[in-house]
Amino acid sequence: MKIPMQTGEILAPIRKPRLPGENESSMKSAAAPAPMKY
Q1: Residue among 25, 26, 6 at smallest CA distance from 15
Q2: Short-list 35, 34, 37, 36, CA closest to 12
Q3: Sequential pLDDT tens for the chain (38 residues)
């Protein structure tokens, strides 16, 4: 659980500033690429 959390923390700060208006979409998108990266 520590591995996926670290990936989310890195993608969260990068996607949050990029799409400040799509905060909800960013969270859903991060969940898709997270398992895909594995």
Answers
A1: 26
A2: 34
A3: 565 556 555 565 555 555 555 555 555 555 555 555 54
Please list, in sequence order, all residues whose beta carbon lies within 8 angstroms of the beta carbon of residue 15, skipping any fewer than 6 positions away: 26, 29, 30
Angle value at C-alpha 5, between 13 and 34, nearest 5 degrees: 80
CA distance 3 to 22: 25
Quick one: the chain helix, strand, coil %, rounded to 5? Answer: 80, 0, 20
Q: What is the pTM of this model?
A: 0.16
